[in-house]
Amino acid sequence: MSALVRMLARTTVVRTALALVAAAAAFGFAGSATAAAAATPKYKVNLTAYQSVVSNLEEGDYPEDCANWTTARSTVAFEMESGRTFNVGLIRNPVNDSIWGQVSSDLQPTAHIYRHWRFRAHYKPDVEGCSPCGPSSEYGPCTGEVFDDRGSDDCGSTEGPVRRGFLSMMVSDRGITVIASPMADFSRCEEPRTEGLPLGPTAPKLDRFLLPSGTRELQAMKVGATRTIRRVVRRGACGRTRGKGLRVCTEINVQIRAKRVG
Predict the structure, then answer these.
(1) Pairing label, strands 245-260, 226-236
(2) 0.85 cut: is pTM over it?
(3) 4, 119, 156, 197: least CB-packed within 10 angstroms?
């Protein structure tokens, strides 16, 4: 075999090997891309966030008739939910193996906002048994009962759910974080005549509320499965709001309804 023939044979072998390597690399890349796409869990999600702040005030010797005292109670609450089903995808970072969520930006939230308060101020009556007054008393005759001062109001910035406010959801290794602000407007609500009464927050909102197990619960779902992820938190004097002084209970309830679609 001549030197020229041997050189052409070696060239053909090298070219064939390079072509096989390139094909294998291309196939491997496509396979990796396909596997990565298949491994990205996708969900259809609805989100609801609720918060209420209940305040109860008892001042003086409530409920003694022969004493001055004031009681007041208020509730400020809102409920927000996504106005439409939105998409969530879980993306794994190949560098540090962390998880982050790709969430639709516009949840089109609706909000229902509610505020209620009532108070009662009782004044010690100038009657026998409560005061040393009387026909033969050096304090003079009794002037009688003093009517209690009462007031109440039941209002909100909306009459039922309306499209308003800001609602968002973020997914990471730490869990699912929810932010909700109904942008309440209580300007048309009546205010009590007595100052210093607890009326609850004037701008209620939910700041970065974390559902620690949320991401793990999403990852545990199989395609076609549905799940409700929920966290309820109560803070303050929620076991017993009645009693001396000011007692406040805050309740937060966040619910995520998810269906895995891919």
Answers:
(1) antiparallel
(2) no
(3) 4
